[in-house]
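quick one: LLP bound model?
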Amino acid sequence: MTIRPDALQPELLQAALQAAQNVGTPCWLYEAEPIRQRVAQLRAFDCVRYAQKANSNTHILRLLRSQGVMVDAVSLGEIERALHAGYQPGTPDHEIVFTADIIDEATLHRVVELGIPVNCGSPDMLRQVGEAQRGHPVWLRINPGFGHGHSRKTNTGGPSSKHGIWYDELEDCLRLIDELGLSLVGLHMHIGSGVDYQHLHQVCDSMLDCVRRANRPLAAISAGGGLSVPYRAGEPEIDIDQYHAAWDRARVEAERITGSKIRLELEPGRFLVANAGVLVAEVRAVKKVANNHFVIVDAGFNDLARPAMYGSHHDICFVTRDGSPVSGYVGPTAVAGPLCESGDVFTQADGGYVEFRDLALPKVGDLAILRDTGAYGAAMSSNYNSRPLAPEVLLDGGELKVIRKRQTIADLLGLEA
Ligand code: LLP
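yep, here:
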C-alpha cells in the first residue's frame, strides 16, 4: 500500500461516508495503518520522537507509543496528554521531552517533579530550570543561523526566528549549564517544516561545529522534525535513506569528537500523520459569482487553518452520499467555509489570493473530503465564530472508533457560567 495514493481509496471513502453518518459533519477521519507504515519507514533512526503538536489526540499518541515512538511536548497540556496516553516520565530512555523557548512556573514544577528533560530554546529558560533543580537533564535547541520552511511562518531558523539559542551563545549557555550543575543530554536543531536537501548538509555541519565547541560527552543529537510529505497527486516522497545517511554520518563523527556513544533522534510531526487524515464536510451551498463558482461547506478555517494561515494546498474531492465521485460540469471553483471572513477559503495561495480549481460541481448535501489533514488539522482548530470543535474518528482494522466527541455549544457556554 502506498501511503498517499493519488486517488481516494474505496475503504477510506466508505469510512468517510460512515463517519459522516455516525458523528455528522464536519469530522476528522484518521487511518491507523498508514501511521504505522510511516513509523516503519523511520526504523533506521535510534529514536523517533513524535512532535505531538501535529496531532495530539491521546489515541494517536497511544498508537504511536505501541510502535515504539517516543514523544515531544511543547506545553503542560501536551505533557499531560503524553502521560494520559501511557508515556512514562523520568525513564533512562526519556520517553517524554519538553521543548520550548520559555517555561512557565506550572510547567517548570511538573517537569522537575517528573524528571522530564527540558530542551531549552533560550538562556533564560536554562537559568530557570537550573535554579529550580540542580542536575536536571537539559538539551540545547540551537538556531544555527539559517532555516527553511514550506512557508515563511514555518521557518524556525535564522536571525528573524524567535526559536532556539543563537549559535553564537553556545559557549555562554555551556557555562550556565556548568554553573547551575545541569546535566546536558544533547544538542538539537530544527530549522523548519519542509526539508530541503541543500540545507541538510549545512545543518549537519553546523551540528558538528556545535558538538566540537561543546567539547564534552553527549548522549544524543536531534535532527528535529520538518520532513515533508506529498500534498498533491504525483508529488514525490522524501528520500528517507538519504536523510538518515547524512545525519548518521554526523552522528558517527560526533561520537569520534566526543568519545561518547551518541543516539540519533528525529522529531517528526507531519511525516507520521499528515497523509493519514481527512476532513469530511458537507456541501451546504453552491453559488455562481461572475464566471466562478463557490462551493460552501460546513467546515471553516476554525477547523482547518492551514490554507488561510500559509496558503497550504489540500486536495479536495466531492462525493455523493452513496460514495460516487461527483461528475458533470467542471469549472473554476473555489471551496469556502461558513465563517464571517473573506479569508475562509480552502483554495487559496500564500498571500490570501483565492484560487479557482477545475472541479466537478457538487450538489447541496454531497460530501467534500479535504485530504492530508492528519497533521496540524484538528490540532490547530479553534472556537472562532463560536463553532464547537469537530469530532475525530479512527479507522483501524476495518473498524471505526470515535476518538473525540464533538464539542457542544453547552461546553463553550459552560466555561462562562
Ligand atoms: N520539532 C520542533 C522543535 C518543531 O518546532 C516542529 C514544528 C517539529 C519538530 C515538527 O515539524 P514537522 O515535522 O511537523 O514539520 N502548523 C504548521 C507547521 C508548524 C510546525 C511548528 N513546529 C503547518 O501546518 O504546516
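The radius of gyration is 22 Å.
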